[in-house]
Each structure stands twice: as C-alpha cells, then as structure tokens.
Design brief:
about 15% strand; about 210 residues; Arc Repressor Mutant, subunit A; Rossmann fold; phosphoprotein; alpha/beta; Sig_transdc_resp-reg_C-effctor; DNA binding; CheY-like_superfamily
Amino acid sequence: MSISIAIVEDEKNYNNALKKVINYQQDMKVVAQFFDGNDALKNLPDLSPNVVMMDIQLQDMLGIEIIEKLKKEMPETQFIMCTSFEDDEKIFNSLKAGAMGYLVKGESMDKILSSIRDVYNGGAPMSFSIARKVLQHFERKLPEIKGLEELTNREKEILELLSQGLLYKEIADKKCISIDTVKKHVGNMYRKLHVSNKVEAINKFNHFKN
C-alpha cells in the first residue's frame, strides 16, 4: 500500500519539485497540493492523507496554526514541517502543535523521502541542525530541575506554602519560626533553583510536581 501525501507549500517550484520526486517513488503518492493555508485547512480533513509536508510561513497563515486546528480531526495523519526557519520558537511551537518531523528545505530529496517513510512508520525525523537544537534545549533544562533535589525538607515545605498563596508572616506563624528565617530559606531556594523571584520558584516547583 502506498503512502498518501499532501503538500502545503506556497513556493510553487518547490511544491511541484516535491510532488515530482515523491510520485516517482513506488511506495508513495501525492494526493493533493495546496499553495495557501486556507485551502489546506478547508480540504485536508476530507483527504486525511498519511503524511502532510507542511511549510511554516505560508502567505496567509502559519503552518503551525493549521496543525493546531486539524490535529484532533486528523489523528492518524503525521505532519512534517519543511521550512527554511531554524529558530527555537518555531521549532518548539511546531512540535507542541503536533508535528512529528522538522526538516530544513536545504535537505536532499533522499533525506526528505526517507523522512516520509520514517514518520509513516512511527519515527520522528529531523534535520541534524534541528535535532541538535532540541537536545541543547533539554540539556539547558536539566540542571534547572536538578536544583529541586537540593532543597531541604523545610525549604520544600516553605515553597509549598508559597505556592498556596501564603505570605511570609503567615508561613512564619504556621511553622513557628521568625520572618527573617523564612526570608533566609527563600533566599537559599532562589539560589538553588536558579530563579530570581517567587513566581519563577513556584512555577518550577509546580513543573517538578507534575
């Protein structure tokens, strides 16, 4: 059975080049080409192709918006971003929206074809430069979460009370300690968690608990 593919790309030459190469393969076929976002948004659900090659920056909307709107309607369809953008925000917004692959347009056609097969078989293909950015992102996040393990039990208790909205004085009364002691614990927590205010500390604490 051949892999059905839709291409959403407003650069006509690139769209047609993709179609030509894909249709030359025995195991895949382009079932639709879209040159703007609204057309894709309207017609993709009826087609439900196995794979959608999605440009990020269409002239009328972002490809990310299309995925966000269609992912629930098309749970079996896999989306691959195929774009010239490599900035972190677009990468992570695409992945959060439900894209399973992210390719840079400079990739060879062989890489694009293997990525289509890969995503169809449950993989998550990415260009090397994108994969490196994703790994670097998580490497930056890990030390931040580790800080929570360094908190003492008393510091965790105070952070829990802060997250419940209690003031320093209320925490001091509840724990039978002075306000200065509470402030000292809070200062230690900020240092260990690499944060500079209460909101950041609470957000990190809630993220860790979840």
